From TrEMBL:
Residue ranges of domain HhH-GPD in the record: 61-220
GO biological process: base-excision repair
One Pfam family it belongs to: HhH-GPD
Listed name of the protein: Endonuclease-3
Amino acid sequence: MCNPPLPQAVQPHMTDLPIAYDLPAAQKTWQDHLLLNRFYPPLTQDVPRRSPMRELISTVLSHRTTHADEELAYDRMLEAFGDWAGVLAAPTAELAHAIRTTRWPDTQAPRIQEILRRIQAERGEFSLDFLEEWPTEKGMQWLNDMPGIGLKTASLVLLFNFRKPVLPVDTHVHRIAQRVGLIGPKASADKAHQVLLEQLPKDSLALLNFHKHNYWHGQRVCLYTKPDCAKCPLKGICNYYLEHYGPATAEAIAATPEKWDTAWGALPH
């Protein structure tokens, strides 16, 4: 097969990209991390992007929902009910109406109230700050016991807010891991949490960058329907590329952009 059309106005900076489709999965995972670290801006953990409680509830709201609609639902919820105590005390139907831009407001409203009820009952306040001192495994188990909280949501809260060495695997990270060959083609997202974490350093900053870079890559390059393989720095190790276009040519490698270009669109949150 031929390589896909090359992107326009690209300088040949990435001539040293690896071409090694038969690397063991763990080595591919590390190569993915190194290559996307070059392609996307590196992140730090100086300040969490959101408070722990907001991270938890916003992630619940985000299920199968765009970021803009999630933010709108969160803002409307707090505008309507003031604080977490107000959200907990609100009539469930009114809460569902406030978060109506989410995918399943009638399901999420009682779920959010039950989460708030448990936190208040167990901790005496609406705070997750205690997770800072808890061992990672204990924090994961406590969060996973909440209704509607799975591995992804628990991992996001622990990694983003408390710098715990965990790896969130959303649909984008999962899709890229399968296409490149970091995990098996039938491995579930839950299984991917375990497999990818075992292949990466137990370092929260490295895990944060792996998650966010693959997340951005899935939203902007490795799309679900029409992946833009021409501009992808993973083409030399990606099983999907090999299957659809054959081994990457020198021309295709040379045409790969060195860095993410904002002309292709701003990066997501």
